Amino acid sequence: PDGGAGASLVQSLTASASVAGIPMPQDQCQVEQNQAEAALDSWLLHQCSDLVLCTQNSLQSLQADVERTRAFLVDLYHILEELRMRRAASDVGVSDKETNLRLLYKNLLRSMERKTQEVQRMQEDAEMLNQFCRGGRDACGMKQDPAEVS
After folding, report:
1. What DSSP designation does 135 have?
2. pLDDT at residue number 139
3. Is the pLDDT of residue 136 over 60?
């Protein structure tokens, strides 16, 4: 009853099972843990990819808005110049229309500047997300390819 033969048999069976690729309870826990980590990594990458796509769509929309605003500002600038030249030629004061257009121009210019800054921030966010999704995973302890984890 010293258990020597039984302990020896358990060690022998455990070694044989490991060599044969039969998961033992401890190995099974490790496999399940690896699968859980792979599932989490896969979910994180999927969420990250979805967020990258949404950010890129928002970025494109905002960039189009900035370009449209810029084009309108150019047109508005030329209209204001025309009104200024007419006013100078006729020696009359500034009209309500010109005043309102100047206010519109200034407000649109400030708006475009804010949108341009937001575009820059969104580009930084998109770059950070892309870096994470494409290779920055190591820094977070994630597997390179969740499909490879078994």
Report:
1. T
2. 40
3. no
Neighbour tally for 129: CB within 10 Å:
20
- Which has more pLDDT, 146 or 50? 50
Place of tokens 């649109």: 108
Which tens digits make up the pLDDT trace of 24-34?
566 778 888 88
Counting Cα atoms < 13 Å in the Cβ hemisphere of 73 gives 16
* DSSP states along 62-108: HHHHHHHHHHHHHHHHHHHHHHHHHHHHHT----HHHHHHHHHHHHH
Which region, left, alpha or beta, applies to residue 141 given φ > 0 means left and ψ of -120 to 50 means alpha? left
d(CA 8, CA 3): 8
Q: What is the dihedral of CA 27, 30, 31, 36, to 10 degrees?
A: 160
- pTM strictly above 0.85: no
Q: At what angle do helices 25-90 and 96-134 cross, to 10 degrees?
A: 160
10 Å Cβ neighbour count for 41? 20
